[in-house]
Design brief:
Helix content is 48%, strand content 16%. The chain is α/β, with parallel strands linked by helices and 233 residues long. It has one domain: Rossmann fold, CATH 3.40.50. The strands form two sheets. A five-stranded parallel sheet has the order 2-6-1-7-8, with helices on both faces. Strands 3-4-5 form a three-stranded antiparallel sheet, covered by helices on one side. The structure holds 2'-deoxycytidine-5'-monophosphate. Residues 15, 37-38, 41-42, 101-102, 105, 131-134, 182, 186 line the site of 2'-deoxycytidine-5'-monophosphate.
Length: 233
Amino acid sequence: MSNNNLPVIAIDGPAGAGKSTIAKELAERLNIPYLDTGAMYRALTYWALQHQVEIDDPEGLRDLYKEIVMDVRFAQGKQEIYIDETDVTPYLRLKDVSELVSPLSAHPFIRELMVKKQREIAARNGIVLDGRDIGTVVLPDAPMKIFLTASLEERTRRRHLDFINLGISMDFEQLKEEIAARDLRDSTREIAPLEQAKDACLVDTTNLNIEEVVDLIIALLKQKNLLPEGNCL
Ligand code: DC
């Protein structure tokens, strides 16, 4: 049955699988917002670093986050995150943040806070979300779930290229080890580990370009009758 609602699309997968690139592109094609949930955990990590609270100090973190207001804004297709009116968006990819975000995101109370916020943001007509637990925990009823993956070699190659483009030199093998370690940590943590939801479509992007993946997801949406009537994307 066709309808006039735009779908909520959940995209999960390991680091470097192409989630954010694909989610961004897909959201643009469908003209709906894209919520990068990893950025929310990164924002909290940055805030802890700024306030010299250790990532393995749950009580200190709890105190730090007790009174804060996190505001996720969508400005001209771009997501911005403010904490207490400070725009933290430019700092989310800092090396220290990238290193500490995975252990920070494993604290159950932090996940609870973020999942609540993500559900509030997703309670709208049409949105693409990417993360590690969107299809399994945040939105288990999402009508379209994608689990994006790619070989470790290819995922490292993509991240390596990102660094080169930023003018940062990075040893390929070291990066590969870091990605593998993060995947292991994300997929073996007790709460909401990275895993494919039973009803998610597995898409291996190792040998696909961005357009091919987006086209594939749009074809899946059409197949499931999840695009509004008359939408000929
Ligand atoms: O996608 P990313 O690299 O920005 O995510 C950063 C970290 O945040 C990642 O190591 C795991 C965590 N994360 C999570 O636990 N749950 C999410 N929904 C999104 C990210």
